[in-house]
């Protein structure tokens, strides 16, 4: 006769109700919240939270009334470059600083030619 192994203990796959998912999503995407901290608090992965949010937003077209108001829709932030500040500081401050062992430092300025930057970075490898 063969051998049978029985694993006892808590179920490995947890089940979350829709209310629990909405509560966790509202908590994770509230203004000023950190998704990683909410994940640690509820002992779930951040990938699961983003999967829940994607599925909720995909299904949200039919169930618009169920979407919590604290769950914002992802948007892009506009980047604004102030030309006056960039012109003055680009020549004074390096665009990239690389700290090397033994206290050495490599500074690359924005005006450096791309071939020179590529050669310097290749030499560091």
Automatic annotation (TrEMBL):
Locate the coiled-coil region(s) and give their ranges: none
Range of residues in the leader sequence: none
Under Pfam families, the record lists: HTH_Tnp_1
Q: Which Gene3D superfamilies match?
A: Winged helix-like DNA-binding domain superfamily/Winged helix DNA-binding domain
Q: Give the Gene Ontology MF terms in alphabetical order.
A: sequence-specific DNA binding; transposase activity
Q: Which InterPro entries match?
A: Transposase_8, Trp_repressor/repl_initiator, WH-like_DNA-bd_sf
GO BP, one example? DNA transposition
Top-level taxon: Bacteria
Q: What is this protein called?
A: Transposase
This chain's source organism reads Croceicoccus mobilis
